[in-house]
Amino acid sequence: MELLQFTDKGIWCAAGDFYIDPWKPVQRAVITHAHSDHARWGHQSYLSEHAGIPLLKLRLGADIHIQGVAYGENIFLNGVKLSLHPAGHMIGSAQVRVEYNGEVWVASGDYKLEADGISVPFEPVRCHTFITESTFGLPVYRWEPQQQLFSRITNWIYENQQAGKASVITAYSLGKAQRLLYHLQDKVSRIMGHGAITNVNELLLSQGYPLPTLERVTPDIPKAAFKNAVIIAPPSADDSAWMRRFTPYSLGVCSGWMQVRGHMRRRNADAGFALSDHADWNGLLQAVTATGASKVYATHGFSSVFARYLGEKGIDAQEVTTAYGDEETIINPET
């Protein structure tokens, strides 16, 4: 029997009697990060890296039963050794290392290799078997260095300001929005936000993260106040009455899918920026290589393509169907 098994509830460790990011209610859930496809309501107990606890409580409710552990701290569940290690995906994100009878598996959750400045950077973990995401598992997805990308975003904002327009940027409220705020805070004088984003920002400010104070967009703010401002909004606000109050504005979409032309037109965006909190093609390959794993399971994303490529390179790789996806899959060309 394999150390970790793919079941209809999630990734299960029979020996330790726990699940990793289960999508159906279970007794004991180990959570890689607080995004809704990996952290779901209804489990009897949760285990997370310490920094993820406030975010999980924000998303799932303050009354959930949750235990926190530090990165690299070993705990034992029915004799199975378990530890969490930085995934670099967002604040509190972790890879799950599971060891039993000399066999080591790592479930990556979601991850990226480039340090974003606010989450603990990705650390490769040596293992025999690696469960990897493959959200952007095609060679076309290769991210430009974030310093260059944020320079382009900043220049776009300045051009909008010269034209007397507000700059509305859509980004997922948990993770990417904070990354934007962190990198724009010294370059823009006025940044405003949708309530979904200001709620997360206020929580993280209270936890001591180096983020700017974000002005919440409310109905009583006069229209003139939006001129030349930067407004961060979740993708769900796109083309809504809430967003039309900023007219005239220019819309920028931050998503890894913006790497491919055509997605910007589909979103009716004025600008597209391929900013992603997932590893690109090269990052996925680098991460797999760094683990030294002889067996790889590829989950959500372009899993069949990525597994086939690894197989051609001599790695025993297999596609696995799970219930994972994320904010960016709403415009995934596969769906």
Summarize the structure.
This protein has 335 residues and is α/β, with parallel strands linked by helices. The protein has helices at residues 53-60, 146-162, 176-184, 195-206, 241-244, 263-266, 281-291, 303-312, and strands at 5-6, 11-13, 18-20, 28-30, 45-49, 66-69, 75-77, 80-86, 94-100, 103-107, 129-134, 166-170, 191-193, 215-216, 230-233, 249-254, 271-273, 295-301, 316-319. The protein contains 8 helices and 19 strands.
What does this structure look like?
The chain is α/β, with parallel strands linked by helices and 335 residues long. The protein folds into two domains: 5-140 and 277-331, Metallo-beta-lactamase, Chain A (4-Layer Sandwich), CATH 3.60.15.10; 146-273, Rossmann fold (3-Layer(aba) Sandwich). Helix content is 22%, strand content 24%. The protein contains eight helices and 19 strands. A seven-stranded mixed sheet has the order 7-8-9-10-11-18-19, with helices on one face. A six-stranded mixed sheet has the order 1-2-3-4-5-6, with no helix packed on it. The longest helix has 17 residues, at 146-162. The protein starts with a strand and ends in a 16-residue tail after the last strand. Residues 327-335 have low confidence and may be disordered.
